[in-house]
Amino acid sequence: MNEFNRNAPSAETVFYRTYSRRKQDGTRENFSEAMTRTIDDLAAIGKYTKEEYDLVREQALSQHAFPSGRAFWVAGTDWSKKQENFSGYYNCTSTHIGDLEAFGLLVDLAMQGSGTGAVLEDNVVGQLPPVTTEITCISRVAPGAVPAGKRQEHTSAVHNLKTNATVLTVGDSRQGWRDAYQFLVDVAHTREPSKSVNLVLDFGNVRPAGEKLKGFGGTSNPVKLEEAFDKVIDLLNNAKGRRLTPVEACLLIDEAATAIVAGNIRRSAGMRQFSQSNLEAATAKLGLYSQDKEGNWRVDPKKEALRMANHTLCYHDKPCLEEVKGAVTNQFHSGEGAIQYVPEAIARANVDLLNTYSRKQTFLKAYADVSREAGETVLRAYATNDGLNLDEREFQHRMARYGLNPCGEIIGRDFHCNLAEVHLNTIDPDDHDAQESAFYAAGLQVAALLQHEFIHERYQYSREIDPIVGVSFTGLFDFLVHAGGYEWLKWMMGGRKGRRTGDLYEGMEESFLRRWREAAHRGVKSYCKKHGLRIPNRITTVQPAGTKSLLTGASSGWHPPKAQRFIRRITLGVSDPLVPTLLNKGFSVIPAQSARDDDGNLLDDIKDPRVQEVLVEIPTEVSWANIPGCDEFDLAYLPVEAQWGLYMNVQRFYTDHNTSATIELRENEIEALSELIHKSIEEGTGYISAALLARFDVDGGTFPRLPFEPIDKATYDKLVKIKEISGIDGKFLDILNEYDSESYHLESVNSCTSTVCVARAEADEREGKP
Fold first, then answer.
1. Which pairing describes strands 411-412 and 403-404: parallel, antiparallel, or unpaired?
2. Taking CA atoms, which of 115, 339, 442, 637 is between 20 and 30 Å from 37?
3. pLDDT at 446 over 80
């Protein structure tokens, strides 16, 4: 029996690529085993009662409420039980970069798999000391020079008086990489400057590419480590005699991120927040990509690391309409330069003090229309009025709670966030009890990790005075189509116009959203009261939910799907045992975009030795595609007004933190969207930030081998037929375990894209065979 529903054809690929761990016998976990491992560990950390455990487990195994993706991977491992590794349990973090230690902390967080947000505003980075010392690398030792049994895990720096050189020996561990990186940052900022420090970079203890990583999992690949250290040294040397600029500080973080991603620790996930007036930051990614005369694309090597994170500009006052329009236009063309409206973020993060509409509006008006100091005065007055005696450190923490995680759905300062996610597409819109049980269980899931205590004081302090959790959902668009049917979808495609229809459907959305928010609050608050923990003042959020959404076939977060039917392409390494498994199950597998010849042309044969990554092509149909009438709409033309309307309904009636949003638009919609954003900021109706993305068809074409490719019903039916004809019977996991335990060659595996398979499918179609 398939563990995943029929509307989630990507589920097995994603689950076995991303979440399934090896068991003691060497085989992989199935979904039930992996989820039970995760829930059992959450129960142990959170000290669940039997009733809490039973509810959380039932909701997770039924795929209604999922714990975080990070928990799904690390839970139950010995590695995750060590306090120094607790950060690896969390989706995301944010850190103010106002001291040198913060740089090493972000490296440590990224190497544990946690997404890193960094506040890099001018006044924050301005707290760093000036760079005083030049670093000169006089020699180096390559990775792998020291045999496995003799390697040292810890980094050491020893000064040789005879040669007047410092030997920096990089340890073979996460801490070793972090400490070596931190040494470079610290020595460049030493308070007793010398003209130069002569450095020997010894990477000999770092295991070479291909060796297994203990504890965390995966394999070593230090291919970018030496290059990253060279670039870090160059950045620091170029700043000698002055303080780092925010963009240089950003590059210091992201050069390390390139080595971490290349080292197979995780994908890149970052957010970098800059001051609204910082022109260098606003244009940092311009010129990142360029084309030569032959049309080949190249990346500026000095800026390449900036690809590791999203950039946003922090607005502490209200931008005028022209500023908003300029920012929207810039995002349309480059994908960067989003406006984050800071006063709204700080107001939401202080909802325990700004707990009425009047209080919040008074604060927003003082902060945005007068000054930050005026807003601070208002907040202090409300604290005094409520009998709260806040010390200065907590008050300054409260005024700085606008840090964002990589996808922008969590707000706070120096935080770790644990997220849980309700998959609305798996729940009947008429079953209110089932919906509330799912959100209550998700509240219990996120609250369990509030028992963690962090080893770094800044993060533990934030946990104590401002505990952060996030109960999210995914599949909202699917849910609302099933709830409102063809008429709701028609209203959306028309831009959510019409007063009577609008009252009906906006009221329907509001009712669901308020009920879910209340259930999530009950779950978190009941848990915290029972365990004597401080109750978070904001609980709900909406994350993008890309990977986990594929486990149930949900449209991501609140967003619409790309189409009713599409080809979903998922990246795998060419040597991954999933590749022959998928070929045997009848899926098409093609070279990825990274597979190109010397002239930059895409390769077509996965057996070509130049191919290192491949794409599995999975024909997908959303759960409501065959509801009468719903197939007539082209979701690529969903107006920005409709996207904005649904997004802001979620922001107003469900979300406590922020709603992660990517609004897709065409050039002729820039003005309309600019006016909507500007109006929300002017009226204080809840906007904090949103990403904007130009439609891929804006120039009349598209790029090859994208993650999503819309297709019509006839094409979908044909591709499914090809898969059925060319695929073999048998459970997915049984086939995968065979390839896990045996040597194989791609030449021995038949591809479903063969002309024989296509011909057979076309013949069956002509003959009317199912």
1. antiparallel
2. 115
3. yes
**Same structural domain for residues 606 and 465?**
no
Q: Cα torsion for 477, 478, 482, 486, to the nearest 10°?
A: 60
Predicted TM-score (pTM) of the model is: 0.92
Three-class SS state of 167? strand
- The phi, psi pair for 244, rounded to 5°, reads -60, 145
* Mean pLDDT value across residues 534-556: 94
The β-bridge relationship of strands 65-66 and 415-423 is antiparallel
Give the pLDDT confidence of 130-148 residue by residue, as tens digits. 999 999 999 999 998 898 8
Residues 564 and 703 sit within 8 Å (Cβ to Cβ): no
The span from the CA of 544 to the CA of 557, in Å, is 5
User: End-to-end CA distance of the chain, in Å?
Assistant: 21
Per this entry, what is the length of the chain? Answer: 770
| Residue 194 and residue 51 in one domain | no
Say yes or no: 539 and 594 in one domain: no
Beta strands in 427-547 (DSSP E): 469-474
Asked whether residue 20 falls in the same domain as residue 149, the answer is no
Of 683, 630, 638, 631, the C-alpha closest to 663 is: 638
- State the DSSP H helix or E strand holding residue 642, giving kind and residue range, or none if neither: helix 640-653
Domain enclosing residue 182, as ranges: 129-242
Please tell me whether residue 635 adopts helix, strand or coil conformation.
helix
Q: What is the mean pLDDT of residues 531-552?
A: 94
| 589 within a domain of the structure (yes/no) | yes
- Residue 559 placed within a domain: no
Of 514, 549, 584, at which residue does a domain stop?
549
433 and 545 share one domain: yes
545 lies in the same domain as 571: no
CA atoms of 738 and 733, how far apart (whole Å): 9
